[in-house]
Amino acid sequence: MTSRMKPKIGVYVCHCGMNIAPKVNVEEVAEHAKTLPHVAVARDYKFMCSNPGQDMIVNDIRELGLNRVVVASCSPRMHEKTFRNALRKAGLNPYYFQMANVREQASWVTKDSAEATEKAKALASAAVTRVAFHQPLLTREVKVEKSILIVGGGIAGMQAALTSAQAGYQVYLVEREPSIGGHMAKFDKTFPTLDCAACIMTPKMVDVYQHPDIQLFTHSEIEKVEGFIGNFEVTVKMKPRYVDMTKCTGCGLCMEKCPTKKITSEFNEGLSKRTAIYTPFPQAVPNVPVIDAANCLTLGKGKKCGVCAKFCESKAIDFDQQPEFKTVKTGAIIVATGFKAFDPGSIGYYGYGRYPEVYTSLEFERLNNATGPTSGKLVMKDGKTPERVAIVHCVGSRDQRHKKYCSRVCCMYSMKFAHLIYEKTGAEVWEFYIDIRSPGKNYEEFYNRVQEEGVKFVRGRVAEITDMTDDPKDRGRLTVVAENSLTRRTLRIPVDMVILSVGMEPSPGAEDMGRLLGVSRDADGWFNELHAKLAPVATPMTGVFLAGCCQGPKDIPDTVAQSMGAAGEAIALLSKGSVTTQAEISNIDEDLCTGCKSCIAACSYSAIGFDEARRIAVVNEALCMGCGSCAAACPSSAASVRHFSDRQVMGELEMLL
Amino acid sequence: MKICFYPGCSFASSAGYKESTDAVCRKLGIELSEIPDWNCCGATVSFGENTLRALVLSARHFVLAESMGFGQIVTGCNACYATLRKTADILAHDPDLFEQTKHVLSQFDLDLSALPKIRHLFEIISEAMPEITGDTFRDIPIAAYYGCQLTRPHQDLDRGDHPTVLETFLEKIGFGVTEHSAKTACCGASHAVVYTGDCRVLAQRILREMEGKGAKAVTTLCPLCQFNLDQNQSKDAGPSLPVTYFTQLAGLALGLSPKELGMNKLLVTAEKVLNRP
Known about the structure:
The structure holds 2 protein chains of 2 kinds. Chain A is of the alpha/beta class. Chain A folds into 5 domains: 2-132, Rossmann fold; 147-238 and 326-338 and 508-574, FAD/NAD(P)-binding domain (3-Layer(bba) Sandwich), CATH 3.50.50; 241-321, no CATH class; 340-505, FAD/NAD(P)-binding domain; 586-641, 2-Layer Sandwich (Alpha-Beta Plaits), CATH 3.30.70. Chain A is built from 17 helices and 34 strands. In chain A, a hairpin with a 2-residue loop joins strand 11 (220-228) and strand 12 (231-238). Chain A is globular and about 90 Å long. In chain A, 46% of the residues are buried. The mean pLDDT of chain A is 95. Chain B is of the alpha/beta class. Chain B has 2 domains: 2-122, Glutathione S-transferase Yfyf (Class Pi), Chain A, domain 2 (Up-down Bundle); 132-274, 3-Layer(aba) Sandwich (Rossmann fold), CATH 3.40.50. In chain B, the strands form 2 sheets. A 4-stranded parallel sheet of chain B has the order 2-1-3-4, sandwiched between helices. Chain B has a 4-stranded parallel sheet with strand order 6-5-7-8, sandwiched between helices. In chain B, helix 1 (17-28) packs across helix 11, helix 3 packs across helix 4 and helix 3 (51-67) packs across helix 5 (95-106). Chain B is globular. The two termini of chain B are 32 Å apart. The mean pLDDT of chain B is 94. Chain A binds chain B through residues 348-349, 351, 354, 466-470, 472, 475, and chain B through 159-162, 180-182, 185, 205-206, 208-209, 212.
C-alpha cells in the first residue's frame, strides 16, 4: 500500500511569471526544500500550472518514483485542482498533494525580498512536513437531480429559466411578487438601441409561463434549503393569494368592483392607485389577481365586504386560503434576486418627497411608459409639459456617505431619458454628471448622439435642489445648484422637473437568501462569486450559481449574458447525471464514539445521524461538507475530518511557528 | 435654573439679543451665570489657521465652566455653538490632541479634565417656554432662519437639511409659521464684511424666498445671521421683513413689551408687523 511506503516527496517552486520570482528567491527556496526530510527532488519553474509545468510533475512521479508532491505557488483556490489532476494523471492518489501559497501569503504581501524568501521557505517546509502524513482519499460519484431551481423572476431569472428549460431540464422558478417581470417590466425603452422593453419582455414572460418544463411559483418565497450539490431539497412557501389560480379566468371583474381603490401602486412607483384585489400591471404573468390582505376590507379590516367574491363567476375568491408549502428536489440553484433602487429620501438637500417635481429614475420610467399613470405623456403633476429638465447622475452612488460603488447603469439610462424627453417634449435637458461611463457596445455612440441632440452636460455633482429662486418669474420652478467643475463656476439653473438617477443596492431579503443558501455577500451586500474573473457565476457553495444584479450592478445586456452563463454552468454541472463528492469529510471512529450526540447538535448540515442499535454517531457522507464542527465538538476525539488529521495540521504548524 | 452662559463676542452688542434674553430668562426663572474672563472662541476662522490653537481657545472655557461647577455650556450664537461643539467632539475622539491641549492649558494653571455638553440657548428657552394658547400672534407668519451652523455638521438639535425644530417652537409660543426653502441657506456670515456685494446677493435671495412664501417677519438664533439679514434690506426696493431674535418673539409671547426686548434696535422696524394693542 502506498500509504505505508516511505514518503518520497517532490517540491516544485513556481515563479508565477513576475508574481513570485523577483520578490521570492525561488532557487533558494528550492535548494532549501532539498534539505528537508523525505524530499527527493526540488525544482523551480516559470509557470508550474502550464502544460510543461504539469508534465514535469508527472514525469518525476513516473521516473523518480515520487509518492508525494508539494507545489509552492499561488492559492489552492486557484490551482489545487490543477495539480491534483496532474497527480491523478501520473497514477498517484490526488490527495498526496499539498500546496504552499507563496504568492498571496509571501511575495504579494511582503516588501523585503529576503523576508519574503524566508516566509516562502517556511511555507514550503510546512507543506513538506504535512504531505508526509497525507493519506489516500477516495471521492464518490453521486447521482444528481436533473432540475434547476431559480430564485427571482426578473429578466435574469426568466432568462436562466428559459435557457435551462431549453436544454431539457425541469425548472422551478420562484418569484416573491405576484407576477414575474421584475424591474425590466417597468421600463419603456432600453439603451442603447431604444427598443421597447415591453416588446422584448412580455413575450419572454409568456414563454416562461407556457413552457411545459418550467414550473412557476409566484407570490412565493424560499422557506428552507437542505441537501447538497446535485441533490438539494428546497421548500417553497406559496403565500396565500386568496384567489384560486385553477379557477380564475383573469376576467378582471373583481378589480373593477373592489371598493378599496386608493392604495398606492407599487408597480407604478406610487404615481397611481390600485385596488385591494389587483394584478401589479395588465400584462402580469400569471394573469391572476392577488388580494392585498392588509388593505382588504374583509381580510385586513374585519369588515363585511366580499364584493369580489360576489361578482366572481368562477368562484375563485377564497378568503380562507392558507400558506402552502411545497418541497422540490433540485440539482442546482440559480440565485437571481436582483436589486432595489436607492431611496433618495435620505439625501435631504435633493428635496425628494418635498418637491413634487423631483422624481426617481424608476418613477420617471413609469411616467414615460405607455402603460404608466399618464399613458406615457410626459407631463408634470399640474398637467403642463416641462420646458427644462435636469437629470442628476450618481444619486446615492459613488458617494462615501451612501454607496461607494458605481451603479454602472445610471449614465446610460440618464442619457436614454434625455433623448426621450427631448424627443417627446422638445424640452431643454441638462445632465449633471461626475464622469460619463459609457463602456458598452454602441454606448459611446449613444452618448455622442445625445450630445448632438443638444442635451447640455455639466460635470459636477449637484449640491442642492431647491424651490428658492433668483428671479421672481421663476417662482414655482425648481433650481438646481451645482458647480460646473470644468469652468469652476457655480450654476443655479431653474428647471421644471428633476430626475434623480438613483443607484442600486441589494434586494431586500438578499441577506436571508444568503443565509439560507450559505452564499456569502461582500461589504456592500452583493453575493460573492467564486472568482472575479474565472468563475463569475459560481459561488463558493457548489451547485449554487448567480445571475444578474444580485452579484453586483449590471445593465440588461450583461444581466442576460450572465443569466445564460449561470444556466450554462448549472447545465454543465448536471448534464453528466452525477457529481463527484468531496473526499475531505468527517470520519467518526466507531471504537471511540461514546454516543453523546454532541456532533449531531454541532452539525449545520444535518449530516450526522445516530445508530440506535450500536449507540454511535454515523456520518452521511453525501451530506457532509467537511466543515469540522463535529471534530471540534467531539469530547472523545472520535470525530475528525479527513485530510485535516491532528498529525497533518500539527506537523504543518510546527514548521511555521 | 442656573445655567453656565458663554455669550460670545457679538451677543451684547447685537440688536436686542441680550435685552430679550435677559428679560425672557428673568420671566422664566433662568439664571445666566456668565463665564468670567471669557475669550473669543475663534469662530469660523481659527480652525482654518491652526488646530491646536483653535482647540485651546475653546477648551479654556471648558476648564472655566468646570471650575464654576457646570457640566454644560450654553451659548446663543451659532458660530460659538458649532466651534465649542466641534472642540468637544475633537477632544473626545483624539487623545493626542487632548493631551496637547491639556498641556498648553496647564501652563496657565488650567487643568483640562472633563468635556462639557455644549448646548444652544434655543434648547434651554424652548424647553422652558410654556405653551401659549392665545391667538395674539397666530396670524403672523414667521419664517424661521436656522443659518448654516446650528444643525451642521453636528445634528444634535435636528437634521442637517430642512430642520423643523424652530417651526415647532414658533407654533408652541403662538406664532404662525411660513414653510420655506432658505432655512439653512448661507447668509455670508463674516464674509459680509469683506465681500459685501456678494453677500448682499445671498441675503436678498434668502429674504425674497421668505417673503415669496408669505412670511411677514423672520426669526433667527444667531447674531451674525440676524445682522446680515437685517442690514441687507433697503428701504426702497426688495423685501422688507423685520428680522427678530427668537428670544424677542418668546418675550412678546410672554407679554413683555417690544422696548424691554430691545426691538427698537432692529433696522427694519418690527412695529407694524408685531406690535399688538
